[in-house]
């Protein structure tokens, strides 16, 4: 009888604990969240809808940027490609700053709202630069805005608007995605599985926005004007912000915990100050906090790599547990803090060796689009596909690969690997990198064929394979990078983790511009430049072959480091 009462009491306590979310998140009033009324898919849908509208705006602007710079502002191909890469680079590197601010000071929710307002300001200014007579590309008497060179004032206002969008994206993108993932509890079996699908379906929402952006918005740009397209984007973005705000009471929030970089510096300083101490014979002698809340609810297991850093968690010979609690964090760190620094250091090679994928991606919004612009895009006598709309094929490929992965590969591979993800995250990333190499090879072959028949207009359908293949690669690598950087960074750096994934694309764009400059300089010295005034006087096929070879060599290095990588190992702690 007594045993039954104890079992019943234990079951009651467990059921009560399951009602609440104990992952250090809070509800909108700062209380422990109730599981049934907060988070999970019911709130993630608000967030995915908001991301859909932001990606609609971003790709509606980004994919046509190279065409705007060449047709309206009248820059040459080389300068336009560089400016596009610079803008994409800044746009995808700014999240490093936005993610840091969100994690350390403002919170993700507040950062989302502020950055969305800045984003809207950029869209409004972009629209004004087209409609206000004083800011138009051409003299206000020219109602068609066609001229041989855009006015300087339009060029200045246009780039200010574009970089306002960059700053808005810098806070919006990392905060919104990490805020969405925060709606799932890692310590709850069902919610943890839902989170794995969240990144896949998040990407489907992104791709849906992309497809609509490069079809409907680009069509309006081509057949009405750019200003009307900007007004549509303003309306959609403002409406989705209101929808996002309506879900305020049902979200789970994370309280900012100060700069996530400070604990890292504390570990390094403590380790250096104790560099002469011998390593302990047993890792259990290393110091770990006894307070569950001091580690944001999760402790990390000790690992054998980068053992030098373990000295930061070593107790001095005259220390005891009570004295250790009072020591300065610059002199003594916990095992969890040491392991968090190890996680960041172990990520550096992975980040570096995914950069060539970012370089390959940069070609889709520059040279791939420009190739489509000079090819035969007619479907009928009355309709011609806008050049930027071809980019929708990349999103189509990504949606297909995400759906196949989530619904077919994961269930099949689970049985073979006993891994709840099917394949581990780095294997998924490496698979996508292989697709990017194949895409560059196909692009080189297609461009070579186009140059051989330059006197004829090649049909744009020849570009379908290279767009679809790199889209397949995106479905593996981009989604894998999102999950990798969110999951493997310390819990206090989740927004910064998403920013690290975006920085792969940004750094890839900057490197693409640098490579174009170097290749242009070298090939000009030894003969004819690979980048001429237009595509017919360029040798993009050789450039694509160079990227394919470079990416292949890089993939071998990536596989080597991926095989050595140790994933985050969280201790199971009873609350």
Topology:
Elements: H1 2-19, H2 40-62, H3 65-71, H4 77-106, H5 108-131, H6 152-181, H7 189-223, H8 226-246, H9 261-273, H10 321-326, H11 335-353, H12 355-362, H13 367-373, E1 378-380, E2 383-384, H14 392-417, H15 425-452, H16 464-488, H17 494-526, H18 540-564
Concise synopsis of the structure shown:
The protein has 575 residues and is mostly helical.
Structure notes:
It is found in: Membrane. Belongs to the major facilitator superfamily. Proton-dependent oligopeptide transporter (POT/PTR) (TC 2.A.17) family. InterPro entries: MFS_trans_sf, NRT1/PTR, POT_fam. The protein is mostly helical. It has three domains: 239 residues, Up-down Bundle (Growth Hormone, Chain: A); 79 residues, no CATH class; 228 residues, MFS general substrate transporter like domains (Growth Hormone, Chain: A). The protein is built from 18 helices and two strands. The protein has a two-stranded antiparallel sheet. Helix 7 crosses helix 16, helix 9 packs across helix 11 and helix 15 runs antiparallel to helix 16. The chain starts with a helix and ends in an 11-residue tail after the last helix. The relative contact order is 0.13.
